[in-house]
Amino acid sequence: MKVLSKAKLEEALNKLSEANEVFVPMQKKAQSGYFPWNSFVSGQDELMLEALNVYQSPKGAVLPQTEKMYRYQQGGMEINIEETFEDSHPTIIFGARACDVKGILAMDEVFLTRGYEDSFYKARRSGNTIIANACYEPGPNCFCNAMEVDCVNPAGADVILRDGGDAYVWEVKSEKGEAVTAVIAGLLEEKEVSLPQLKPFVQKVDYSGVAEKLKTMFEHPLWDKLSEPCVNCGMCTFVCPSCYCFDIQVKMWGDEGYRFRAWDSCMFEEYSREAGGGNPRGASKERFRQRFLHKLEFFTERYGTPLCTGCGRCMIVCPTDINIVRIIDAVKEAEVND
């Protein structure tokens, strides 16, 4: 089997960064997330490949938090698009966990299928390669196995890394994977290493039947109780690897300007506010319900898989201890009228 010695990891990242923007899990002061490897400052930043996960997922590599879309000139009633900013420069997400890869696959469904392709997302994704990091020891908040994610064999990865002690097994899964492997071929060696066994999940939850049951629960009083602690801060949506809500804004000076989009959140009151002032989800409960119905019912109905990937980040960052596992359990136990 091909392996990459951990002693050669930084050399491999440097080599890959020569022709690609390489995003790696990193601790930067109080922040942890996926940052470009060329921003790494030795002695100040910390590479987090050995950590189970970081707070910010790598979705920003394909759906940036703020993204310029196009520049235009206005003349009377005419508007001329002068330049679009579809960015297909080569990028590598290095070390993504299976839950985060599943989040990107979910966005692929939204932005690239069902008769419509988002050209900005498509451009970024076309230049993107995913080198995933297999998980063998789930954390206390992990439940990806319940949400149709195989943490040992991340679906959608171009290369899978497997921790073999002092080296990573390097397992190529696609043509893109072959291409990045060729770049660091001189650093790989043939060696047999033993791999760990998958340890049991601490967090237990049964998602089976939840999407179907939720179809009957839109007006269920359970939502009043579950939503009561929520302060609509939106932290859950910003750390989630599969949330993709965005807002489009314009910046103008005189007759010219540009449009850009930025992450938004269904938990914010203004997100669903209409131009005339109405709001179909003006109450906190309605926004809370929308988020969990989208994660657990609506996405499953449309795409055949839940939008939650079981990473557990939302449970970690929530200031009022809202827990999606407990919500799934409460739905399972709720009584509904036939």
Task: Provide structural commentary.
With 338 residues, the protein is α+β, with helices and mostly antiparallel strands. It has one domain. 27% of the residues lie in helices and 23% in strands. It contains ten helices and 13 strands. The strands form two sheets. Strands 1, 2, 3, 4, 7, 8, 9, 10 and 11 form a nine-stranded mixed β-sheet that branches. A hairpin with a 3-residue loop joins strand 9 and strand 10. The longest helix has 20 residues. The chain is globular, with a radius of gyration of 22 Å. The relative contact order is 0.15. The mean pLDDT is 96.
Task: Using brief descriptors, characterize the structure shown.
338 residues, alpha+beta
Question: Which helices and strands, and how do they pair?
Answer:
Elements: E1 2-5, H1 9-16, E2 21-28, E3 31-36, E4 46-47, E5 66-75, E6 78-84, E7 91-96, H2 98-112, H3 119-126, E8 128-133, E9 159-163, E10 167-172, H4 175-183, E11 188-190, H5 210-214, H6 222-227, H7 235-239, E12 246-253, E13 256-263, H8 284-303, H9 313-317, H10 324-333
Parallel strand pairs: 2-7, 7-8, 8-9
Antiparallel strand pairs: 1-10, 1-11, 2-3, 2-4, 5-6, 5-13, 9-10, 12-13
